[in-house]
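An instance as discussed:

___
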Amino acid sequence: MALAQLGAKEILMKYLNTSKDISDPVIRFGEETVGNTAARLLANCKTDDIFYFLLRIAHERPLPGIIETLGSFRSNTFIYDGPIFIKRLPIKKGREIEMDGFSFLNIELMEAACP
């Protein structure tokens, strides 16, 4: 928490980027808890570099804190290319809609995706 208040996003990113192959389940759970917290603290820095960094990390380790933080960006990229899918969904982009100060892109699954 103190690192986030100091604006030390690089340190939080470095921590998340460090590969941890821990065999002990108790220690691994503790490390994942710290990783979840680090990811959630990065939600305060809504920048493209943070988003794409977390998206890359989520494909390797889809921790709940990383997924929640990615969801807070409200990005279509996370929806169709996120770690919850085995591969990118084939989509076609439709029209853009503005509502309540937000822009939404109407995306539809292509016919081949849903036989």
Q: What stands out?
A: The radius of gyration is 17 Å. Residues 2-87 form one domain. The chain has one domain: 2-87.
